[in-house]
Every structure is written in structure tokens, then in C-alpha cells.
Amino acid sequence: MHAMQYEITLPADYDMGIIRRRIATKGHLLDHHHGLGLKAYLVRERGLDGSPVNQYAPFYLWRTAEGMNSFLWGPGFRTLSADFGRPAVRHWLGAGLHRGPAAGTPVAATRATARLPEGVDPAEAVERALAELPDHPDLHTAAVAVDPAAWEVLRIALWCGAAPDDVPGTRYRVHHLSSPELDRLPVGRHW
């Protein structure tokens, strides 16, 4: 499993209706993309959920590197880059996945990252992050991934209701979920 995200920060006075319409008209295009576990169309709007910025920040869990590559080198990412400029794409190696009890469509997401200090055993840090994945009735999916270049651990959770106040991290609204191969992603630890 590979985790991937890019963030497009927009001006404070940007009409976020443009982003919502873009998702409404183009979101379905990845509903059947080969190799894609899920794509959560994440949005932050200035003044909502404590966000200081307007941002389009889709998050992906890829089942295969081939699927990820076909997206990055394909027409969808080319169009996004033409419209907004080519964003930096963050990439993490999947370390674990947890399917929550909520079966509906996610409406919220939380994402937290933490750098691992020198001397911290990465395997122990990942085990701790996996053990700390939320257990909540509104949890749809949660994942842990690692960027071994920066030694950063990522935790992301998708919620079928408001994200619980005690879950740390950046808060997003989910405007669409493409999940063509979510059921094919391995649950539990990934090594």
C-alpha cells in the first residue's frame, strides 16, 4: 500500500464553490481506477473546522504502484497541473490499515504527522501509531504510513460523522470518496 497526498492552497478570497463543482463533476472519474484503494477528495475552507486556509488536498491509498503511476503520468493529474500548477506530491509507504465499523460515506477526515526523533526505533513508533488508531462508531477507515526519507509517521482517519474532538490533526471535509479497490487493501499491519 502507498499513501499519497498533494495540497493546493488557494487564496483567502477564493470561491471554494469552484472546487466543490470540480469534485462534483470529476470525482467519479476515479471510481473504477485500477490499483486505487481509495481517494478521499479532501477540502479545507478558511473559517470552517478551525482552518486558517482554503485548500484542496486529496488523499490516496494505492493498492499498487502501477495504479499510482498511471494516475500521476495520466490525463487526470495533467489536467490538475494545468489548472493549478504542478503540486508537490507527498508519498508514504503503507504500514497498516484499519477498517472501522461505519459503513456509510465519509464526510470528515483527520490527518496527523509526526517526525521520529533520532534514536527512536521506527518499528516501535509504527506499532505505537497502529495501536493508537481510533476505535469509534463513526470511523470508516484509518491508516498509518511512513515517509522513510524524513522519518515521518502519518495517521489518517475517515469519518462518517464529525471527527471526534479528541482525535488530533488537521481536519478536512470529504466531498467524494472513490474506493474501487478498498476491499482489496490488506487490513492490519503491512510488513
Provide structural commentary.
This protein is of the alpha+beta class. It has a single domain (2-184), classed as Alpha-Beta Plaits (2-Layer Sandwich), CATH 3.30.70.100. Helix content is 20%, strand content 37%. It has helices spanning 17-26, 65-72, 75-84, 122-131, and strands spanning 2-6, 8-10, 36-44, 54-56, 59-62, 89-99, 108-115, 139-147, 152-159, 170-178, 188-189. Strands 1-5-3-10-7-9-8-6 form an eight-stranded antiparallel β-barrel. Strand 8 and strand 9 (152-159) form a beta hairpin. The chain is globular, with a radius of gyration of 16 Å.
Main traits of this protein?
single chain; 191 residues; alpha+beta
Quick rundown:
This protein has 191 residues and is an alpha+beta fold. The protein has a single domain (2-184), classed as Alpha-Beta Plaits. It has four helices and eleven strands, in the order ββαβββααββαββββ.
Catalogue the unreliable spans.
none
Give the structural class: alpha+beta
**Rg value:** 16 Å
Annotated CATH topology: Alpha-Beta Plaits
Level-2 CATH architecture: 2-Layer Sandwich
Give the termini separation.
10 Å
* Mean pLDDT over the full residue set: 95
Strand order of the largest sheet: 1-5-3-10-7-9-8-6
Reading off the top of the CATH hierarchy, the class is best stated as Alpha Beta
State the order of secondary-structure elements, H for helix, E for strand: EEHEEEHHEEHEEEE
Roughly what fraction of the amino acids lie in strands? 35-45%
Number of strands: 11
